Amino acid sequence: MGKLLAVALVGIAAALVAERLLAFRNRLNASREVAPVTLPNCRLVKGIEAGSEDIDILPNGLAFISSGLKYPGLKSFAPDKPGEIFLMDLNENNPRAVALRISRGFDLASFNPHGISTYIDKDDTVYLFVVNHPQHKSTVELFKFMEDDNSLLHLKTIRHDLLTSVNDIVAMGPDSFYATNDHYFTDFILITLEMFLGLTWSNVVYYSPKGVKEVAAGFYSANGINTSPDRKYIYVADVFDHNVHVMEKHANWSLTHVKTLQLDTLVDNLYIDPQTGDIWTGCHPNGMKLFFDDPDNPPASEVLRIQDVLGEQPVVTRIYADDGSVLQGSSVAAVYEGKLLVGTIFHKALYCEL
Question: What's the structural domain count of the chain?
Fold first, then answer.
């Protein structure tokens, strides 16, 4: 009887592990391969060789690009080089990326930039919010963009117990923002265990000097976040649940769920076209390839445009897809007047004229 019970328990345990393993592979889209979708007028951006994880574009066509992210479990082409913020003027005929100088006093040696967001106040002052992971910790750095000499003036470092492992950010004022926490940044083993067990510990936090609070929870891995042009809705990408959540914003900054758009890809950062309200996003068709580095089988890239996201039938279009031979691990796609920038976690950046 004892042996039969032991065998039964072993069988149950094996079945549970097999189920979790299958769910883990599905969450990473391990079996999906991407069919190419090419664009005719594209080139790699010179000077960006170690990632372009997030991109935000001002109304005047100046694009900010975060570069050099070191993320546990993922490769880095410049592991000993500090991160940078690049600037591109998309009004130029042949725009180039220029690394912005950051003011003295800021710890450049440990700069590890992740998600970024801009805010323009009534005096046309441009603020740049940057998620930073110095020593793999989590802070938000606030900069003022000095357009006269293309530099960044560091204003302050923001820390809070609720900002445990910030992934992305959307600025709502000169000193307030929504941020996604992906729960674990510092430990690849814990990240993997969290995904394997299917734990929904990730959340969204609202921060302002007057108060900080959790405003949404229950995500597998809350990643990209952005706001509709009228700032009435917040969009949240759950990268490991392959979807985008639409959340209504209220006067007290709380969020309520409106709808979820399910997609067959790992959705990363979200960019909102200010003219149309369309969501543009860089995606990972097969997330398994991100974590298992194989030069002969690199991670693919995919760009989606989501139109009429608030309507009854949103339209999802694959704008670009590559098997990794040109661009590896796309994390963001941003548009400005017929021009497209596609960024990556650790690879290069792509500039296209649509």
Answer: 1
